[in-house]
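Comment thread on ticket #2218

A.B. wrote:
> Attaching the input chain for the structure job we discussed in standup.
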Amino acid sequence: LLFVSMSLDKVAEQHPLPIDDAHKGPIFDELRSILSERIMIIDGAMGTALQAFRLTEEDFRGEEFKDHPKDLKGNSDLLTLTRPDVVMQVHMSYLKAGADIIETNTFTGTAIAQSDYGLEHLVYRMNKESAQLARKAIEEVEKMKDDETVIHRPKRYVAGSVGPTNRTASISSVEDPSARGVTFDELVDSYTTQVKGLLDGGADLLLVETIFDTLNAKAAICAILTLLEDDEEYKKYFPVPIFISGTIIDLSGRTMSGQTVDAFFSSVMHAKPFCIGLNCALGSKDMRGFIQQLSKIANCYIHCYPNAGLPDGMGGFKETKEEMANEIASWVDESMVNLVGGCCGTCYDHIRELSLRYSPENVPWQKLRKVQVYSKPDLRLSGLHNVNFSETLNFVNIGERCNIAGSRAFANLIRQNKYDDALQVAIQQALQGAQLIDINLDDGMIEPLEAMRKFCCLLQSDPSASAVPLVIDSSKFAVIVQGLKNSQGRCLANSISLKEGEKQFLDQARVLRRLGAAMIVMAFDEQGQAATTERKFEICERSYRLLTEKAGVNPYDIVFDPNILTVATGIEEHNEYAKAFLDATKLIKEKLPGAKVSGGLSNLSFAFQGNEKVRRAMHSVFLYHAVRAGMDMGIVNAGQLDNYEFIEPSLRQIVEDTIFNKPGASDRLLEVARALRENAGSSSSSNASASPDEWRLLPVNERLSHALIHGIDKFIVQDTEEARQSFDHPLKLIEGPLMNGMNTVGDLFGAAKMFLPQVMKSARVMKKAVDYLIPYMEEEKKKKIAALLAEGKEALDDQNLHYNGTVLLATVKGDVHDIGKNIVGVVLGCNNYRIIDLGVMVPCQKIIQAIIEHKVDIIGLSGLITPSLEEMITVAAEMRKHNIHVPLLIGGATTSRLHTAVKIAPHYFGSNGARPTGPPCVHVLDASRSVVVVQQLLDKTQNTEYIQDVWDQYSEIRQEYYASLASQKLISLQKARSQKLKLDWSSYTPPVPSFLGPKVLLNYPLSSLRKRIDWNPFFSVWQLRGRYPNRAYPSIFNDKSVGAEAHKLWTDAQRYLDQIIADNSLEARAVFGFFPAASNDHDDIVLFADEKRSEIIATFHGLRQQLEKEDGTDPYLSLSDFVAPLGSKALDYVGAFAVSAGFGVDKLIEKYRADHDDYSIVMVEALADRLAEAFAEELHEQVRKVHWGYSPEEGQQYDASPDDEAQQSQRLDDLLKGKYQGIRPAAGYPSQPDHTEKNTLWKILQVKEGTSIELSSSLAMLPAASVSGLYFSHPDSSYFAVGKIALDQVQDYAQRKALSVSEVEYHLSQALSYERTSAPPS
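C.D. wrote:
> Ran it. Output below, let me know if you need it in another format.
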């Protein structure tokens, strides 16, 4: 009796609060009883044990799979079927060593993992027989009662091992951050089959283990809960103990998908695990801190089964059984764990040592960890980090800028499919301190399910945005579910209600619970929205009872929104709305334990739209009282709040009276609002700065560094000469103070503390200093050579010796764009790399000759137009043929990591096998990345690992690319044409141009173009990128990071423009014209010589979309759809144009290059590009309003105020966003990706003859600052992307253009939906 009493005391002490229904049942009682007396032991590594048997391919195949088409060695789970004797021996060895719990041999027992072996159809059988085999092992060991080598246990248990699979639902592909290798639903289906087999085979508990991606684990949990709660056949197993085991991958304390320990716990706590812990990746010593952290926050038992230390480099692990046991001893002594075992590298000896060391005799029950139940189990939400709604947490502001209804800018980005820019909105909110981010993509213009999936996936790929928990917000429940299925953290679902009745409400609540979400519940029922205090609380109380009593929802996971409604509308009953919310909030907090309260603040003041001062005061005063009433969180624009204490007292009092519905208060507030007028004021201040020449008092070496860092060349020659006097050799001056200064520049640029315009100026200063020293170095070299020759020695002259390396840069044949290449050269030069710049349009043979001649260490190829991509492939292949083993870098606007990995790297780097077969080929995104890449490639101590990493990534990219090609669904060209855009030409009269044929414009005034410049691409050239909301011009000037430098650069650009216009150093030319035209049935547009329309003078060949569209009614577009067809009564026209602002650029570059002024070179090239684009915009507007004249009234609202800066800025914004009738698509771009169509345009407009704008062999325009395209006038014409096309269209297109298929494939390589096998045309 005494013994029983003591045992019950121990159990009671460990479980002071009632046990959850999910933890009731005989097995739970047994486990709790054992854990109240001793540490339980989990078995060791199955894989380590199996490796000791040295099994062959024949062992894995057995008789049953001897003819299986795929290799099976390594598929350990299959051994349950083919070598059950071996698996049985492993189980029994661990049981003899004292294991209380043995895991089934099912770590990869899912259809997803087994699909690699072609055995997914065997998954149920594998799991069932594995559980049965483990059960049989227990039965056999229990018969060995007299065997003294066995550590006996009164009862042992089978844990059904549920591994992570070999796919990840949270981690993106390399190329596309929104893409995933597996979906949540696929994981659920896969896990469901596995769990069925485990339960039917007799597993006592389920162990979801080695969780490196929490979203995978959430899918496993969802599968388990849904199966046990909804499947009639499997309800008999409920409840079953669930063990959850995460994996912290390194000392950063995070899972592979980035979550911290507490965020991981919050994300899986909805499973109500009987036990939670960590395993794998780390040894016991490194695991300690993370187990300690988990032990403090978890309200359940804790386990840990670490690796046997770290790998020893020879396939084994370092930690001995004694070392592991000694380390875990401190955990036990500090009551941190309840169960221990071993993972990778552990064997029977490790488990025996743990069993003996932690026996009841060695660990008194008072030392055992007691299950901690929250004294107040608060709402917990998580992203990568955790947010715990404890009593110490103040009001939580939910960021709403990712809500389409809350942000017009965000809505436009989503509608325009600019998801990367939309992601920046979320990042900015997170960086500015938003504790939760609301995601709402409900909009009639987008497909919300896909939009929610894509945006949530993008969020997960960014560490800043995904750090914050999400509020998944939608009026469509399916969209909420979609968001939850693509978010690894613990989210808040917004919202559900009783609007459609109790059944739907409970069904939705159960789904949210299984997906791990807390939930916002609206005060809305079958009768409608609650407006009074009584109705609000009545609905909330009813919802609370249903959720907690029938849906199994934790009360702390319920957040009520009692509806903040608009007051002071002039309608009497509305005056009570604010007070009703406050009173209902107090009742909820008093009578519904655990529930939270939220609300949307902006609704309150809708009656005062446009009166910012009153709205700010209303929001501030209401929030002040709402928080005190118990409001926990809400959607609040913090920038539109005032400090309660500092609101003008008279205004604050009248607002307060309105909120509490004092007699006449609403009328008084309306009177005040009419009288108030906001006073706009601005103030500016400038900080006094020290004298600009104060740095001249520094020692000369410091003056040199200062000049380099700040780009000051005024004194550089003077200071260089002074410094030279103190050095024995001029080279030492370069290697010393000058390179020290440039190294600082490189470091600052790499850390984003210095920007590209500054780096360019620094490079100019450096070159001036070096140029000054060159004559001294040449003289010294001559003397040195003469001395060596006098001594009869050979004089070697290796000019590479004093550089970090030599880099050869070239824009490939046919391409004339080199701004980006020039910038890369400057940046690398600043980091002491010798640059060999071959310029533009460089043929392959010249590149190869230069590589050999200059003994280069790195080759960089650049290109802008798509034909350049094909030329890069040719260069890479030729380099391989010439046995050149030098790293190849690929860069330029049209290049990409995907294209480099799939198309270029295989010709140089290799494409098959586990290791590269050639030198590395690496895509470099921009100049800021170039230094790091070059350093890693040339670092002999690290480059092997880096090159292998690039190889592995590119191999994965290739696999994903070819898999995506296989999954793409394209319709036939015939079907696409049958579903073309069908415009009503019978009721449409096309506009008639004012003239036909070409017209030339020479020496067009640049002053007119200047005001049309789009400055955003200009800042991109200089790699100045503001953060939202300061990304675009002119708001970029307000950006904290780059704003000052952007404004300085822009001011500099104005100076250059002033000089260019004053000197007429650049000339703008254009040719444009109009032609009678018609479309035919083959997607072509034919042009006629005159209005008789009898003589065809040219044909523009079109391409049509073929990628299958989700909406079966959507048309498949081609440019020809926008032109009236042959035979139609509608007589249509097409325009064409070519413009350039690049005449004179080469002369200016030559001048600046002589002065080593890279900054001015890039500036002139960038401005010429901007002027050319501005010219294209201006000419198109003239076409629309005058020359074709179909929109004569366009922009009249702006013409009335030519000097109004805001109006003209809005006018330019409208133009740049294409807010006008008609389009001007260009060849080589998405609507027509074939550059060869430029030849036809050049012919009909006589472009070269009229303007001297030429085409290169690769169809790049010369000068580079040129733009060309076609004009379409139809109101329904729009820009679109052709996308991928199939072989049938390629063959049809080749026939229409009278080209071979291989030639067409060459020019359309980026648009092919299949892999081109034919060689490029000679």
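A.B. wrote:
> Thanks. Noting for the ticket: Residues 289 and 776 are 61 Å apart (CA to CA).
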